[in-house]
Amino acid sequence: MNRRLEQNAARLRAAKAKLALADEQLAAMEDDAANQELRAIVSETADSAFEFRQAAAHAAAMRRHRDDLRSEVADLETRQDELLDRLSAARGTGGA
Fold first, then answer.
1. How distant is the alpha carbon of residue 71 from its chain centre?
2. d(Cα 72, Cα 75) in Å, to the nearest integer?
3. Looking at the domain assignment, is residue 81 inside a domain?
4. What is the extent of the structural domain holding 54?
5. Could you give the CA distance from residue 8 to residue 81 in angstroms, rounded to a whole number?
6. Which residues contact 63 (CB under 8 A, 6 or more apart)?
7. pLDDT value at position 81?
8. CB atoms inside a 10 Å sphere around CB 40
9. Is the pLDDT of residue 41 over 60?
10. Is the predicted pLDDT of residue 96 greater than 80, yes or no?
11. 34 is a domain residue
């Protein structure tokens, strides 16, 4: 039980680190998309519109990735809570 808890905790730490990085990258990508959108509006060229669509698509992909990581963190936190509850119950009954 302790080994599973340790493994889950390690996975949770790694997922949280990835989530923090994804949050930073998403913020940068959203800023870039906003800048590209402004350029597209001002210049009204096909190239600038294309660059905006590309930047917006990259930001959307990163947003999906970030949301997947959030889900993974939530799942790992739930699993950790379950393992802690089982460990606590086992110790309360004299097990473990």
1. 7
2. 5
3. yes
4. 2-90
5. 10
6. 26
7. 96
8. 20
9. yes
10. no
11. yes
